[in-house]
């Protein structure tokens, strides 16, 4: 009986750890220069890849803005609801080979994301190779 309970406990712990270590969910974006919370991005899986869209903007004066500097199909789209993370693929502990759009200037960067604990996500946008870029730390929203 003790072996069965121990086995069930280990399986439950493994499942809870796997769920807690998932990048999907809602994340509060924190500006890496000001330390200020700016928005909430919902990260989700679609066709085996990771995407993220803006679902909340904290500054009421910026909620109705559009991405005038964006190009292609994102040009002049509302920033609220805009998919800013596109096409990331799992590679070990990180997700990479996708892009992230900065909706304030419309620039598109290569991107990778990596969990730093169950409730902290490091998001790096870069040009060329990852040493030339910036990292923001986002916090999970419960």
TrEMBL record:
Keywords: Signal. InterPro entries: DUF2147. Pfam families: DUF2147 (PF09917). Residues 25-140 form the DUF2147 domain. Residues 1-20 form the signal peptide. The keyword Transmembrane helix does not apply. It comes from the Bacteria. The keyword S-adenosyl-L-methionine does not apply. This is DUF2147 domain-containing protein. It comes from Aequorivita sublithincola (strain DSM 14238 / LMG 21431 / ACAM 643 / 9-3). The lineage of its organism: Bacteria, Pseudomonadati, Bacteroidota, Flavobacteriia, Flavobacteriales.
